[in-house]
Amino acid sequence: MKKPVLILTLAAVCLLSACEKENKGFAGSDSVIEQPNSGQQNLERQNSEQPDKMDHDTRMENLFELKEYNGVPEMRLEWGDQQSPAQFHRDPLLPLGLYLPDQMEVYEFEDGNRWGYDGGKHYISILEYDEIYLSDLTLQNKELGKYKEYAGSKLEGNVAMDGFVVEKDHKKYFVELIYFTNEQVNALPMFVEVARHIRHIRD
């Protein structure tokens, strides 16, 4: 009678050992959740384990120069393998302006202008800063993580929004880049180049 008991005991030990190995695989899995759609591969949920802030900042760079506007109405912008002359446009409500390449145009609204293309489907806007803009920026765009001003991203259907917080003369502004996810490869490099050359206007 001892042999059946011994065999059952060994079988139980082997089963428990196999379960432990399987559970270890799940415990070691990556906590970052990637978006399933092919046009959203660069957006991922923020990891709860953030690197040391001081070390993180030293490895980052500024995107926004926010130089003072010197009155030059035109400059040349370059991104990827493209380049274009760009005309200066002032924001109607804020002491800021940007150089708009030929591929983009101005869309005027009562609460401020937008600068974009394709009928306004993809655009840049600048707003006075409010903390509420940051509340739903729960995603990270891998293309923008190196910039200090980058605050996060969000997705609404197939539309992505990347947010930035910039400051000049103790005044904060919120810059958003909005585009369809399947247009990111075209919109994002151009928008980043335009954002890099936003100017501050001192009246």
The number of helices is 3
Helix content bin = 10-25%
Query: How would you state the average pLDDT, rounded?
Result: 81
Question: What is CATH's topology name?
Answer: Protein Transport Mog1p, Chain A
The parts where pLDDT drops under 50 for at least 5 residues are: 1-39, 47-54
Organism: Paenibacillus woosongensis
Protein name: Lipoprotein
Structural summary, described in words:
By secondary structure, the chain is of the alpha+beta class. The chain has one domain: Protein Transport Mog1p, Chain A, CATH 3.40.1000. The chain contains 3 helices and 13 strands; from the N terminus they run αβαβββββββββββαβ. The strands form 3 sheets. Strands 6-7-8-12-11-10 form a 6-stranded antiparallel beta sheet, with helices on one face. It is globular.
What key phrases describe this protein's structure?
22% helix; disordered N terminus; 6-stranded antiparallel sheet; 203 residues; 5-stranded mixed sheet; 13 strands; alpha+beta; globular; Protein Transport Mog1p, Chain A
Please outline what is shown here.
The chain is built from 3 helices and 13 strands. With 203 residues, it is an alpha+beta fold.
Topology:
Blueprint: H1 2-27, E1 43-45, H2 53-58, E2 67-68, E3 74-79, E4 82-90, E5 96-101, E6 105-107, E7 114-117, E8 122-128, E9 139-141, E10 150-156, E11 159-168, E12 171-180, H3 184-196, E13 199-200
Parallel strand pairs: 2-13
Antiparallel strand pairs: 1-9, 3-4, 4-5, 5-13, 6-7, 7-8, 8-12, 10-11, 11-12
